[in-house]
Amino acid sequence: MINVSDLNPEKIKTGLTSSVIGSEVLVFGEVASTNDLAKDRLVKNSPEGLTVVADSQTRGRGRLGRAWHSAPGLGLYFSVLLRPRIDARHLPRLALMASVAVADAIGEFAGATKLKWPNDVLLNGKKTCGILAEYCKTESSEGVVVGIGVNVNHRLDQLPEEFRSAATSLFIENGEPVNRAEVLRSILERLDAEYRDFLSHGEELLVEKWTERTDMFGKQITVTRGPTSFRGTAMGLDRSGNLAVLTEDGSRLSFESGEVTLNG
Ligand code: BTN
């Protein structure tokens, strides 16, 4: 394990007020994927709240089998281990919960954020954060790893070319470099508060909070699932966090996963 200049555990933990999330913080230089490291720890019975942070990833994973661009010195790439007592099929709710926390934290550093289903955080309509929650169960251990990637100090030319029209960073939006440890600390604190709220109040409040932070409802969207696309109006989330869509022929569809694009 190495200390990466602006990302050493002391810097991250100094002043951290959370009670569970970030109870232990491990910082690495280059790793394959922080989700994989956090899963290893989960199997070894590390405590809830353990946070694995890396300066860069060689095999950062995104949703739907995609890669997550994880260049050194620029972004935040980290995974948090949770052990909620919820059914594995409710995993998407934890990713929704994390997106609410990240949206509020990033808002402190780069202005108003919006959420796009299922758990993208947007600045100025462009993606600045992605979340990948993975369930893990072995004979001796069970839990969830919530992996979070944030574009922090990237210039536009440091984002992969194919994403430049749809992605952004905190730096691109506010014109100032941001200290990664400060952003991380703020995310961990908000995650701690949202997680406690979720455990005590459940999905209804979560869906309410998520809905307050999006502007996609009422808009025309396309949901893509593998080779199939559906066009319609985004209507809202049900209590499981599934997306309700009213299609052009009047049918109501409910999506558990998929990729949303706003039409027009
Ligand atoms: C998405 O596709 O929007 C989700 C991206 C999640 C990326 C993060 S970076 C830290 C953690 N480790 C990974 O391999 N993936 C997640």
Protein model, in words:
The protein has 264 residues and is of the alpha+beta class. The chain folds into 2 domains: 9-212, Bira Bifunctional Protein, Domain 2 (BirA Bifunctional Protein, domain 2, 2-Layer Sandwich); 220-262, SH3 type barrels, CATH 2.30.30.100. It has 6 helices and 12 strands. Strands 1-2-3-7-6-5-4 form a 7-stranded mixed beta sheet, sandwiched between helices. A hairpin with a 5-residue loop joins strand 9 (228-237) and strand 10. Helix 5 (180-201) packs across helix 6 (203-212). The longest helix is centred in the C-terminal third of the chain and has 22 residues, at 180-201. It is globular, with a radius of gyration of 18 Å. The model has no long low-confidence stretch (mean pLDDT 94).
